[in-house]
Design brief:
The protein is about 40% helix and about 15% strand. By secondary structure, the protein is of the alpha/beta class. It has a five-stranded mixed β-sheet, sandwiched between helices. The two termini are about 20 Å apart.
Length: about 200
């Protein structure tokens, strides 16, 4: 069994309110950390800056993410970013996780809108759910709050995809160390064994 997991976090164009006329929220950064669940280690971190096609980076977005219009203007097109995920990071076959479902849904929406092949496997885990259960919480915490609860430092800048993926990976390893993390395929197998 492959014990590697891709942890993904995206940043997208955003505004303090609704998007301006003619613009849509688009991915401008993809952060990815590869985790070896068996070894309990974060192996590598990656950041892909993506050039938006139907929106611009607002001052609000720059304040939140640190990404500027010039910086994303030098990024790769979305379809190329998806190709990189599939070719260089085994996104189509490797299980993956994100903090919440936003990242998965944003990829689904943007792939459908642009006719781009979805780069990820169906084996996705919303890491917020097992964290909430493992800590007996009533409300699902944001990533920064979860790090505080787990006693882990926030490394890097919050709302930067590469840094957030690195921090989410630390939360997943925290869960794994407490036997509170399993991949969807392992969970399905465990349920099937209990049903027998």
């Amino acid at each position: 069994m492959d014990h590697f997991l891709n942890v993904v976090d995206v940043e997208a164009t955003c505004w303090p309110g609704s998007p301006p006329p003619g613009m849509v929220s688009e991915i401008i950064e993809i952060g990815l950390t590869v985790v070896d669940l068996a070894a309990g280690e974060r192996l590598s971190r990656h950041g892909i800056v993506v050039k938006p096609a139907r929106s611009t980076v607002s001052p609000f977005c720059t304040e939140l993410t640190g990404l500027t219009e010039d910086e994303v203007g030098r990024g790769v097109p979305f379809a190329e970013a998806c190709r990189i995920l599939a070719a260089d990071h085994k996104a189509g076959s490797r299980p993956w996780a994100s903090w919440g479902d936003y990242d998965r849904k944003q990829f689904t929406r943007q792939c459908a809108a642009t006719g781009t092949r979805y780069p990820f496997s169906r084996d996705h885990t919303n890491a917020k759910l097992p964290f909430t259960a493992a800590h007996g919480l009533r409300k699902r915490p944001g990533m920064a709050q979860a790090l505080t609860i787990a006693g882990l430092p926030l490394e890097g800048r919050h709302h930067r995809g590469e840094d957030d993926a690195w921090n989410i990976a630390a939360l997943i390893l925290h869960l794994a160390s407490r036997d509170a993390w399993s991949l969807p395929a392992e969970e399905a197998e465990r349920r099937a064994d209990h049903a027998r």
